Amino acid sequence: MDYRTRIRNVREDHDLTQAEVGKLLQKSQQGYNHIEAGRAELKIDDLVKLCRLYNLSADYLIGLTDTPKPLFVKG
Residues 27-41: pLDDT tens digits? Predict the structure, then answer.
C-alpha cells in the first residue's frame, strides 16, 4: 500500500481532519492535503510526529509492513 493511502486511512480511522493533522505538523490543511495527494513529500520529522500521534511504527505508516505495531506499549 502506498504510504499516502496509509496515512490517509489512519487519519480517517482516528476521526481526524486534514486541518487537525496539519496543525500538529505546523502546516495548513492545504499543505497536509498536498502530502496525502502526492503533490508534496512527507518529511522525516513529520513522519516521526505522525508515529507519535497515532502510536504506530514508521514501518507500518510507510507501508513496509501491513501489521500495525504500536510505538509505545501501554502498561
Answer: 999 999 999 999 999
